[in-house]
Amino acid sequence: MIAFDAVRVRYPAAERDALAGVSFEANAGTLTAVVGPNGSGKSTLVRALLGQLPLLGGSVTVEGVVTSTLSRQLLAQRVAVVTQREEPTFPLAVQDYVALGRHPWRPTWGAPSEGDRSAVERALRDAGADTQATRRTDSLSGGEWQRVRIARALAQTTNAIVLDEPTTFLDIAHEMACFELLAALAHAGRCVLVVSHQLNLVARFADRVVLLSRGQVVADGPPDDVMRGATLERVYEWPLVVSRDPAVGAPTLVPLRRRHAPIP
Amino acid sequence: MRRHPALAILIALLALSMLALMLGATVVAPGAVIGALAGHAHDDTTRLIVVSIRLPRVILAILVGAALGMSGAVLQGTLRNGLAEPYLLGVSGGAAVGAVSAVAAGASSPPLIALAAFAGALVAVAGVLALARSTGGAGDTRVLLMAGVVIGAFANASIMVVMAAASPDVTRNALWWMMGSVAAAGWRDVMLLGASLLVVGALLVHGARALDVLALGGDAADALGVDAARTGWRFFVLASLLAAATVAVAGLVGFVGLIVPHLARSLAGARARPTLVLSALAGGALVVAADLAARTVRAPAELPLGAVTALLGVPFFLWRLRAGR
């Protein structure tokens, strides 16, 4: 479980807090999604969790332990984070890359243990990347690469996994596949927290949605409760309607052309 | 070769070293070389040539190549840039300024000169990083290399200023530093660089997996439990220390740190620990070969070692630059 409790963060020389007292919990067995417009504090949330930014107030806890009391290594043993950007400088074999997920657990010397090896194998299998094990990272397509990155996070064998915009640059099939994978991981018992721009995907897959605006939580609950036209219109400052998707009945957001927008 | 790259390079290194012990103004037969090394030379002249003149030179060349190869491999991983190299980053140039200034100020003990070289290297590193950051391009290959070239040019100019005001003796010394050479190799140089390489090399190989994680970028490294900023800086200092130690005993030898890690990665994949070990071995082989060429191609005249490695390195750099686009 990951809990943010009244977290406050401000960047140097910024006029307002990037996170102005954010509180919510992401529970085990649940796919929790954080959404919000650009600059709402989504990525800052991930950086605060990783300890890359000093907290002005509040705390982040992972499985009941306050993250600021943990070293980076101990934190990496509790929560795996797939950051937004990452590109290996030198191409590695996929299995060697995924094995880097074992880094927080491995002593400096010695070959990988049996446990390390089986964790890597299992991670590749669970992420559906086991057929790519011997390929090089620079030969993967965008969708395959995201899958392999998720495999690396799984190799950390943490119960909590955080992903920052995992579907950027992915086409429809790969977006869907990525969210299917995240939902499956969550429903197998993991705590999965995903930061995303893709409101419609989130509405279909997430069990819980946290809507951020200007560093504050403005709505928090099941997709049906959060995806309300009036709330989203106010937060995104753009005319839109929320309908039902014809296949599964999940709330679906349709942004409108400005000139056709109903006058409020 | 691909199955046992370390063994293949080790054999190449030994073969080149043997050639280097045999060839020169007097050619010594392989049997006589082995005899002299084993302590029962045919005659005093053979022993003098093989053991006292050529052996320290060959060993120093191996150590210089190993240190530069490792230094380059670490800088490339830390800066996430396949074109990083102590010479191109101005690190070696800074070390040369330190060493030349120390000599001009009257220092003559090798450890003191090495210390001055290290201080110069660190100042150069700090200068390059500050310059790159101030333009907002510390993560950009071209900006970083440009900053390195600028700092390197400044280092060269500084050495010339020191030379112009110094005695002929210091001038000769400074020229030697700028051209790079293992011709004056003595056992004291071998000990100094050997000890540095042993300590720093062990630390680097020890921490190699963190280098793999660092090569994924700062955010990913933080997420995997490696403090990217602190660990990166530590590797940077260690790599500079190695480069500075080579400058203190052999002057500026460029491009070895660029060529060798690429070769190592192409043979054994990109993981840092094998890359470091192979870079040390291949670096040794390359500098032994370059030094052999330097003293035999236009014998009895000697070419500067730094010129030979640059003649090899510049085409390689251009090729990598094109391949990297």
Low-confidence stretches of chain B: none
Global morphology of chain B:
globular
Q: How much is the radius of gyration of chain A in Å?
A: 19 Å
Oligomer: heterodimer
What is the overall shape of chain A? globular
Low-confidence stretches of chain A: none
Order of helices and strands of chain B: HHHHHHHHHHHHHH
Please provide the count of β strands of chain B: 0
**How many helices of chain B in DSSP terms?**
14
Structural class of chain A: alpha/beta
**From N to C, what is the helix and strand string of chain A?**
EEEHEEHEHHHEHEHEEHHEE
The structural class of chain B is mainly alpha
Average pLDDT taken over every residue of chain B: 87
Rounded to the nearest angstrom, the distance between the terminal CA atoms of chain A is 41 Å
N-to-C CA distance of chain B: 29 Å
Brief digest:
Chain A has 264 residues and is α/β, with parallel strands linked by helices. Chain A is built from 9 helices and 12 strands.
Structure write-up:
The complex is a heterodimer of chains A (264) and B (325). With 264 residues, chain A is of the alpha/beta class. Chain A is 31% helix and 25% strand. Chain A contains 9 helices and 12 strands. In chain A, strands 6-7-8-3-9-10 form a 6-stranded mixed β-sheet, sandwiched between helices. Chain A has a 4-stranded antiparallel β-sheet with strand order 2-1-4-5. Chain A has a two-stranded antiparallel ribbon with strand order 11-12. In chain A, helix 4 (114-126) packs antiparallel against helix 5 (142-155). The longest helix of chain A has 16 residues, at 172-187. The termini of chain A are far apart. Chain B has 325 residues and is mainly α. Chain B has helices spanning 5-22, 30-38, 44-78, 91-104, 110-134, 141-164, 168-179, 187-206, 208-214, 218-223, 228-250, 256-268, 272-296, 305-323. In chain B, helix 3 runs parallel beside helix 8 (187-206). The mean pLDDT of chain B is 87. Chains A and B meet through helix 2 and strand 6 of A and helix 9 and helix 10 of B.
